[in-house]
Design brief:
The complex is a heterotrimer of chains A (350), B (339) and C (266). Chain A has 350 residues and is α/β, with parallel strands linked by helices. Chain A has helices at 3-26, 37-44, 81-89, 125-130, 144-152, 165-179, 182-204, 231-238, 257-263, 280-284, 293-296, 305-308, 315-326, 328-331; strands at residues 57-60, 66-69, 76-78, 96-99, 113-114, 135-139, 157-160, 213-219, 224-225, 242-243, 267-271, 300-303, 343-344. In chain A, helix 3 (81-89) links the parallel strand 3 and strand 4. In chain A, helix 7 packs parallel to helix 13. By secondary structure, chain B is mainly α. In chain B, 75% of the residues lie in helices and 0% in strands. Chain B has 15 helices and no strands. The model of chain C has no long low-confidence stretch (mean pLDDT 90). With 266 residues, chain C is of the alpha/beta class. In chain C, helix 5 (114-126) runs antiparallel to helix 6 and helix 6 runs parallel beside helix 7 (172-189). Chain C has ten helices and twelve strands. The chains are: A alpha/beta (350), B mainly alpha (339), C alpha/beta (266). At the A-B interface, helix 1 and helix 9 of A face helix 3, helix 6, helix 7 and helix 14 of B.
Chain lengths: 350, 339, 266
């Protein structure tokens, strides 16, 4: 009578262990692309040529899938907040008919029909199909079950999942072509690139010995950091900082607390929410964290999760917020305060 | 009978030695000499301050907690195997683990953050859930007539299945919290500091000691319930006492570290091979072994995938199962009396 | 004064009554054997006497006190039982098992004293178990097992010994040995011994008084000569018998007869 209990116990643990390793490379909502940041940054400096829309059109999406659209899509369903933001940002917002319950930006998006929650399981295929979409925008491998089902039902699905700024620009271009808003997409890309360039230039002037060491906590339990291969890691590098876990191979390595302590970063960053809101008080209460340099010097900053946890159009807001927090004297006047962005945490004594 | 007592002393010595060695083990390498120095003179200032933090705030409370939880599970497991006279009984058999999972999941889903009596909300909810599930199993088993051991086991299985279904439902409905819930379920001692130790210790020690005091009563069950009663055992009262005490030790352990399996199942069996069947020796031996096992498992969890950490519940399951099978094969005769 | 008495006792399981208004008393120094067909209630009566089964009506008295008004530990100091079967889950040794007889006196928590050890030693000696004191009980033969339980009862210093089918599963030699032992305990130490048996001739040889149970009540109570009559036995067991005298001891000897309507072997 007891045997099944033990077997399912083991199976459960093995599956969990394996999924840990898988998740380590994939991040939570996006597929990890190769870390090709430096090459891409060179390619970025040349402006993207605007291409005329020709339908029917076949493109290759973020999962290397061929997506064919017979005509400009009039009804679009988004399966992730980042996709929603991108669609609205390039002007395709009125054509979005379905969103997830987590799509909270821009405010108009909240009024669209909700098709479910965070992952494939909680998103209703029936609801999606009932909205009669001619394009569904998904996010990466985690939504694979939905993608295959929708394909089978004949609904075109394009999957995004950039894990770098270069990838983000490519996705903007892709979405622009798919929705017939290439110009808007190109314009948005250029604006973002200019803002990024300003940050990078200012950061370039920071001498090596003045560069701040940073740890970005993606998740608290298990302790997960943003590695060099993730888009957050890219932002950190762009701000002219040194990521203390840059030696880890994964995009989002799980590290032990001991490693964090040994590397003792000068600044700790975290999003304002994981599954629950994150507060600096609770971070401080962790065993031993009182002795971390960053905690003692009040250099723990929280960045709005909606900005930084989504690799979307507002990512540059997050970059600017981060830069201001890390080097307040250098970035304070160079960048206008972006609307809706904030960093919490006490400022260090001047 | 001197020999089993000597074995007990030896086990205790091995445990202490392992604890000391474990202090030097971790993702960050700190030489043994430095560890000794830190233990003697823990000053948190200067260049070596971070080492001191790692040893005193991270490693030391963590390995003490591992010993405590493992000890509690070992003692509780021995108590349950004695009470149910079933070699496959472990501390989770009548709902302690599923109840704690439900409590923790509810707390995580509700986003509770506040501390209760110095315990995190999730831990407190897990503790409560664990105890309530056991009480429910006991209540179901005693509906109508007196509780019998088989009915208690059945009620426990039924309750556990139902609760696990509820937990799965909650996980499905709140899939953005899936990672948090899952990482709690898998059992982990990472990030547990001194406060957790202070809240866990009294409960585990109280529960474990109470079970130990019932040693003679547990022994008497070997003759059967009728004989035990005729020797003066107050059966109902005794059963409740063992169940409550063992569940308390288990629930406290689960509240602190999540669901850590196999320790409570394997320790009593190995202990029986080492010191014999009398519970007055078996329960402490099982406790010491459980402490040792969990300590070693946690050492592995901390180092084998460095700099990442494995959840310790996964390590105990992966190692415990083949170990148990080997044990069954090589010692079938000694264990055969019960199987 | 009677040591152990059932007075107007009715008991059973659930709604089913097995015994109806039964009264009998056992005295010190005697062996009382409960006889009867299967299902007549022998074991039920024994369990009621042992304070393991609550009466539905009537009472069980131990030294004139209601056994259920006493505490369990008080009763356990005076009454010892040998159930029909006992589990042998764990390899406790013989000595450790006999030591359990001291629990009613010492309790479940306190360590044993020198006095306890002495009594246990005596009991082991009396039952000839000294040579096997360290043997695990899982390895005992049937006869040794029962001797161990009697040793435990002796260590318990109980005045009343209740045995349920003590000869079950034993060969001829050990059957005789156990019965001789309990008779000696009764006559030499003044214990009250109540036991159930299937074998009528064993009852006749070793019992001082016999109680014949039938149809929820007592069909007869008295000496072997009074109870083991052809008419009573045939009627109670539904089998024709003939009763003669034991050639050596002169006690009644019951021999079953073939059914006259059957044609057959003999």
């Amino acid at each position: 009578m007891k045997r099944p209990h033990i077997v399912t116990n083991i199976l459960r643990c093995v599956v969990a262990l394996l999924s840990l390793f898988v998740a380590g490379c994939g991040g939570r909502t996006s597929v990890s692309g190769p870390a090709e940041r430096l090459r891409d940054r060179e390619a970025l400096s040349a402006p993207e040529p605007a291409r005329a829309a020709t339908f029917p059109m076949t493109v290759v999406d973020g999962l290397d899938r061929k997506v064919t659209l017979p005509r400009v899509p009039a009804r679009i369903v988004s399966l992730a907040p980042k996709n929603t933001e991108l669609l609205f940002a390039i002007g395709a917002g009125e054509r979005v008919v379905g969103v997830t319950s987590f799509c909270n930006f821009p405010p108009e998006a909240r009024r669209r029909e909700q098709i479910g929650g965070f992952s494939s399981k909680s998103q209703s295929l029936e609801k999606i199909v009932a909205l009669k979409p001619d394009l569904v925008v998904a996010t990466g491998e985690l939504q694979w079950p939905s993608i295959t089902e929708l394909e089978r039902l004949g609904v075109p699905v394009a999957s995004l999942g950039a894990e770098s700024l270069a990838g983000l620009y490519r996705e903007l271009d892709l979405l622009g072509r798919l929705t017939g808003h290439e110009d808007d997409a190109a314009h948005l890309s250029n604006v973002m690139k200019r803002r990024v360039e300003r940050v990078v230039e200012t950061a370039r002037m920071i001498k090596p010995e003045q560069r701040v060491t940073v740890f970005y906590q993606v998740w608290s339990e298990p302790l997960t950091a943003a590695g060099a291969g993730s888009y957050i890691g890219e932002l950190i590098q762009m701000c002219g900082c040194i990521n203390v876990v840059s030696d880890a191979k994964e995009c989002y390595p799980h590290i032990s607390q001991e490693v964090l302590f040994a590397r003792n970063p000068e600044v700790i960053l975290a999003p304002t929410a994981e599954a629950e809101p994150v507060t600096i008080e609770r971070l401080r209460m962790r065993p031993g964290w009182n002795n971390l340099r960053a905690v003692r010097n009040n250099r723990v900053y929280l960045i709005d999760g909606d900005l930084i946890s989504r690799c979307g159009p507002r990512l540059v807001d997050a970059l600017e917020v981060m830069a201001r927090a890390l080097y307040p004297d250098r970035f304070g006047t160079a960048i206008d305060r972006a609307p809706g962005a904030r960093a919490t945490g006490e400022e260090p004594r001047p | 009978m001197k020999a089993p007592t000597i074995t007990l002393g030896l086990l205790a010595a091995i445990l202490v030695a392992s604890a000391v060695l474990s202090l030097g083990v971790g993702a960050v390498s700190i030489p043994a000499g430095r560890v000794m120095q830190i233990l003697v003179e823990p000053s948190v200032s200067g260049a070596g301050a971070i080492d001191v933090t790692i040893v005193w705030e991270l490693r030391l409370p963590r390995l003490l907690l591992a010993g405590l939880i493992g000890g509690g599970l070992g003692a509780a497991g021995a108590g349950y195997q004695g009470l149910f006279r079933n070699p496959l009984a472990d501390p989770f058999v009548i709902g302690a683990s599923s109840g704690s999972a439900l409590g923790a999941t509810l707390a995580i889903v509700a986003g509770l953050q506040e501390s209760v009596f110095g315990m995190g909300a999730v831990s407190a909810a897990a503790l409560l859930g664990s105890l309530l599930a056991v009480a429910a199993a006991y209540g179901i088993a005693s509906m109508g007539r007196q509780v019998s051991i088989p009915s208690l086991l059945l009620a426990g299985v039924a309750i556990s299945s139902f609760i696990i279904a509820l937990v799965s439902l909650l996980m499905f409905l709140n899939d953005e919290k899936l990672l948090t819930i899952f990482s709690w379920l898998m059992g982990s001692l990472s990030g547990r500091g001194w406060p957790v130790l202070w809240t866990t210790a009294p409960l585990v020690l109280a529960g474990g000691l109470t079970v130990w005091l019932q040693s003679r009563s547990l022994d008497s069950l070997t003759f059967g319930e009728e004989t035990a009663v005729s020797l003066g055992l107050r059966l109902g009262r005794f059963r409740v006492l063992v169940v409550v005490a063992a569940s308390l030790a288990t629930a406290a352990g689960v509240a602190a570290g999540g669901i850590i399996g196999f320790v409570g199942l394997v320790s009593p069996h190995v202990a029986r091979l080492l010191v014999g069947a009398r519970h007055v020796l078996l329960i402490p031996a099982s406790g010491l072994l459980g402490a040792l096992l969990l300590l070693l498992a946690d050492d592995l969890a901390r180092t084998i995938a460095a700099p990442a950490e494995l959840p310790v519940g996964v390590v105990t399951a992966l190692l415990g199962s083949p170990f148990f099978l080997v044990l069954l094969k090589t010692h079938r005769r000694e264990l055969g009396a019960m199987i | 004064m009677s040591t152990l008495e059932a007075r107007d006792l009715s008991c059973g399981y659930g709604r089913r009554r097995v015994l109806e208004a039964l009264s009998l008393a056992a005295r010190a120094g005697e062996v009382l054997v409960l006889l009867g067909p299967n299902g007549a209630g022998k074991t039920t009566l024994l369990r009621a006497l042992a304070r393991l089964l609550r009466p539905m009506h009537g009472s069980v008295l131990l030294y004139e006190e209601d056994i259920w008004a006493l505490r369990a530990d008080q009763v356990s100091r005076r009454v010892a039982i040998m159930p029909q079967t006992e589990r042998r889950d764990w390899p406790l040794t013989v000595e450790e098992s006999v030591r359990f007889g001291r629990v009613p006196h010492r309790g479940w928590l306190l360590p044993y004293r020198a006095l306890d050890r002495r009594i246990v030693e005596e009991a082991l000696g009396n039952m000839g178990l000294c040579a096997v004191r360290d043997r695990p009980i899982t390895e005992l033969s049937g006869g040794e097992w029962r001797r161990m339980i009697i040793a435990r009862a002796l260590a318990q210093e109980a005045g009343v010994l209740l045995l349920d089918e003590p000869t079950a599963g034993l060969d001829l030699k050990f059957q005789a040995e156990v019965l001789r032992l309990v008779r000696r305990l009764a006559t030499e130490r003044g214990l009250v011994v109540v036991l159930t048996l299937h074998d009528l001739n064993h009852a006749s040889l070793y019992g001082h008084r016999l109680a014949l149970l039938s149809e929820h009540s007592l069909a007869a109570l008295g000496s072997p000569e009074e109870v083991l009559t052809e008419e009573l036995i045939s009627r109670t067991f539904g089998v024709p018998v003939t009763v003669t005298r034991h050639p050596v001891y002169g006690t009644p000897l019951v021999a079953p007869l073939a059914d006259p309507s059957e044609s057959g072997a003999w």
